[in-house]
Amino acid sequence: LYKAFIFDLDGVLVDTAKYHFNAWSRLANSLGFDFTEQQNEELKGISRIDSLKKILKWGNQEVNEENELNRLANIKNTWYIEMIEKMTPDEILPGVYDFLVLSQKEGIKIALGSASKNAEIILKRTGITHFFDAIVDGNLVKKSKPDPEVFIKAQQLLKVKIQECVVFEDAQAGIDAAKAVSMKVVGIGLPSNLTGADMVTPDLENWTPDKLIAKI
Ligand code: B16
Ligand code: MG
């Protein structure tokens, strides 16, 4: 029944949320304000520019010119890249590596479906690029999650049907994106943060593709 797995990156395969938080906090501080880790939850899964707009609102900063928005986003991204350039395979989240190995062995096609424009660096530094039959990231899509474009692109590149795909997501925006086209979704995290997922697990540890498929 299921022939393809589409994985989100940040929060599913690796924990880059902490680096995003660090770099955005540094930018906010340089503008004279701060925001909380609770607020940071709202930035998960959404694009860089949408994140910036939310943060500026929290700090009551009025920035409307596109050039200035891009300048600020680029500063943050430079700091973010400094951190992800130092990532190692140790930073792959629990259970992920074995789950990718088993999925590949069973002939399941594997895609990335991430909002990040830095996905390739992260996959490379953590040594998991070779598992992916298709990589769809923020450079390839026009509309960000909760729009389903990213998952539809992955499904098309893998040449499978929508109903043959299972999405793995840690953010509500991603669950909503998958559900907008009725794809099955496994939520990674806490059930309270992941409304509408077909099942939720804290991580991929101790799961095999078969065991997981039986639950959705
Ligand atoms: P970048 P995902 C998302 O990754 C992050 O969750 C989100 O916080 C970030 O703003 C977005 O990527 C864009 O990232 O600035 O690297 O292009 O969860 O979709 O893998
Ligand atoms: Mg995510």
Layout of SSEs?
Blueprint: E1 4-7, H1 17-30, H2 37-41, H3 48-58, H4 66-84, H5 96-105, E2 109-113, H6 119-126, E3 134-136, H7 149-158, E4 165-169, H8 172-180, E5 184-188, E6 199-201, H9 209-213
Parallel strand pairs: 1-2, 1-4, 2-3, 4-5, 5-6
Helix pairs in contact: 1-4, 3-4
1,6-di-O-phosphono-beta-D-glucopyranose is lined by residues 8-11, 20, 43-48, 51, 77, 114-118, 138, 171.
Protein described:
The protein has about 220 residues and is an alpha/beta fold. Helices cover about 40% and strands about 10% of the residues. Strands 3-2-1-4-5-6 form a six-stranded parallel sheet, with helices on both faces. Helix 1 packs across helix 4. The relative contact order is 0.17. The chain is globular and about 50 Å long. It has helices spanning about 15-30, 35-40, 50-60, 65-85, 95-105, 120-125, 150-160, 170-180, 210-215; strands spanning about 5, 110-115, 135, 165-170, 185-190, 200. Bound molecules: 1,6-di-O-phosphono-beta-D-glucopyranose and magnesium ion. 1,6-di-O-phosphono-beta-D-glucopyranose binds next to helix 3.
Strand content: 5-15%
Unreliable spans: none
- Envelope shape: globular
The percent range for helix content is: 40-55%
C-alpha Rg (nearest Å): 17 Å
Structural class: alpha/beta
Main sheet strand line-up: 3-2-1-4-5-6
The total beta strand count reads: 6
- State the end-to-end CA separation: 11 Å
Average residue-wise pLDDT: 97
Main beta sheet, described?
Answer: 6 strands, parallel
**Heterogens:** 1,6-di-O-phosphono-beta-D-glucopyranose, magnesium ion
User: What does the oligomeric state look like here?
Assistant: single chain
Count, helices: 9
- H/E series, N to C? EHHHHHEHEHEHEEH
